[in-house]
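chain below, 171 aa
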Amino acid sequence: MPYTFITGGASSGKSSFALNLFKGRKCVTFIATARVTDPEMAERIKLHRRQRPASWNTIEEPVDLIGVVTSKGSGIGGLIIDCLTFWVSNLIFEGQLDRPSILDLAEKTAQALKNHELDALVVSNEIGMGIVPADSESRSYRRIAGEVNQIFTAHCKEAFFVLSGIPVRLK
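prediction:
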């Protein structure tokens, strides 16, 4: 079943919008890709956990999205992946993957979601609308994240950009 892609800036309301789309559903699986890297991130993760219904299953998987997606059957009420930009960061810094490998993995993961029988939501940050980063590593990350977003939007059935808590349909 084709999935829905949700993007926007940091703290724009993307995750809240995704949660509202699946509000009232039972047996939702939430795939969290973020890692606790500092006290602020730990608090953000705690807040996100509290916002999800207790009946939902959370899988913390920073790298192997395709493995989790393909292991989930049709018996669940939906799947939320939050978020792709953390996933890309994890692939670069933990997985030591290069750009072509990441884009290939993104294509395979997007195809797996598109062809899966699950109703899914994919959340990702839009990080390419701000100031061009000064260092090459940050510019490379921004480029890869943008290309991954393009891959996922190419395969989704619908896409939204969330700006100041307001979702705008793109596709």
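The chain has a mean pLDDT of 92. The chain has one domain: 4-169.
thats it, cya
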